Amino acid sequence: MTEKSKIVNKAVRFPHTYVLIFCIVIISALLTYIIPAGEYARVQDPNTGRTVVDPNSFTIVERNPVNLFDVLSAVPRGMIDAAQITFFIFIVAGSFQIITSTGAIEAGIYKVAYKLKGNEQLLIPIFMFLFSLTGAFLGFAEENIVFIPIAITLARALGYDAIVGMSLVSLGGAVGFNAGIMNPFTVGVAQGIAELPLFSGIGLRIIVWIVFLIVSILYVMRYAKKIKDKPELSIIAEVELEERKNNNFEVIEDRKLSTAHILVFLVLAAGLATIVFGVYKYEWYINEIAGIFLGMGIVCGFIGKMGPNKMAQEFVNGARGIVFGALVCGIARTILVVLKDGLILDSIIYYLSSLIKGLPTTIAAVGMFLIQSLINFAIPSGSGQAATTMPIMVPLADILGLTRQTAVLAFHFGDGFSNTFTPTASTLMASLSIAKIPYDKWIKYYGKLFFIWTGMGAVFMVIAVLINYGPF
After folding, report:
1. CB 307: neighbour CB atoms within 10 A?
2. pTM
3. For a FRET experiment, which of 20, 116, 129, 133 has its CA 20 to 30 Å from that of 269?
4. Cα 437 from Cα 324, distance rounded (Å)
5. Arithmetic mean of pLDDT, 206-229
C-alpha cells in the first residue's frame, strides 16, 4: 500500500471533526421529534448570585421540533453565541506567535540543553517540567509542535530516540494541559460557562500537576534508560537506524541568550503575574486576559525589533494556526442552540440524572469524567468540547449534588488525557508526522501511560467529591 493510499484510508476512517459535530447537530434536531420537551426552573442562589437548576421543578411542555432550515440558521447563531471565546482564542494564539517569533523560547531551549552536557539523565525531568509549564499556564498544544524537531535532535544527540524527544514536548506539555492550573482554553472557558470564579480551585490542580508530572517523568525515564543501554529495544528501532544513516546527530552548540531574549522572558513572566493578580484581585475574565496577552505580544515584538507590519503578519500566522480549534467553539455551540430551541436540553439532563441519581456521587463523578473522555474522540478541541458539554454537565452536577468545580475537573481530565491517544486529535497526528513516528508505534509506547493517567484521574475525581471541591 502506498503512502498516499494510507493517508486516504485514514481520512475515510476518521471523519473530519466538523463533519462529526454537524452529524451531532442533525441527530440533535431529530431528537426534538422524539424526546419529550421539558424545562427546569432556574433560580438565583442568594449566597453566590449564580443561576442554578431547581432539581424538583422539571415539567413537560409542548414540543417545538427543529426543522432543516432551523438547523442551518442555528450555525451562525451558535458562532455568534461563542464569539467571545472564539476571538479570545484568536488573540491569545496570535500574541504568542509574536512572542515565539522573537526566538527567545528556542534560544532558551538550546541554552538549557547545552548546560546538560555530561548530565544527560537530567534532560527528561528538566524539559518535561519546562514544557508542562506551557500547558499548565498558557494552554499550549499546537504551539509546542514547532519545538518537536529540536527536542528530537537533542534526544538523539544524547543517545535516545525520537519517541523520547517527542515525549519531552508532547507528554510534558500534556501533563500541564491536563492539570489545567491556569489553562485559558479549557479551565478558563469551562469555569466561565459554569459561572465559577476564574481559575478558582487552583490548589487541587497544582497537586494534580505535581503528581502527574512525577509519574510521567518516571515513565519516560524508564523507557529512555532501556534504549540507551540497548538501542535495539527502541520501539522505532528501524526508524532510528534509517535516520542515523542519513544524519549525523551532534550535541547542539551553545546559544547565547541576548539581552532581547532575557527581556522577552521578563515580559512574559510579568504578564502572567499580572493576569494572576487581576484574576484574583479584580475578578478579571476573558476580555481583560486577552488584553494582557495582546499587550505582551506587542511589547515582545518591539523588544525583538519587529516592525508593526511584521508583528501584524506574525499575529495573523498565529491566529491562522488555531482556526480549527477556534471555529469548533462556534460550530459546537450549534448543538446547544438546537437542543435549547427544541426544548429538550433540560429533558436530556433530567433523563441522564435519573439514570445515575441513585449511584454514589463518587461513581457519578467518575462517570462524568469517562463520558468526557469518550466525547473527546469526536470533539478533540478543548474549548469546543467545553462549549458543547458544560451547558449539560453543569446543571447535571447541580442535580446530582456535585460541585460545579468537580464537573469542570471531569471535563478537563476527559478532554486532556486522550489528546495524546486519539487519532482524531490533529495536534497528535501532526506531531507524529513531524517526528516520523508511526501511530501504532506511539500507541504501543504511550498506551500504558494513558491508562495510568485515566486511573489516577478517577482517583482525583473521587477526592474532589470527598473534599467537596469548590468554591461551589
Report:
1. 10
2. 0.70
3. 116
4. 23
5. 95
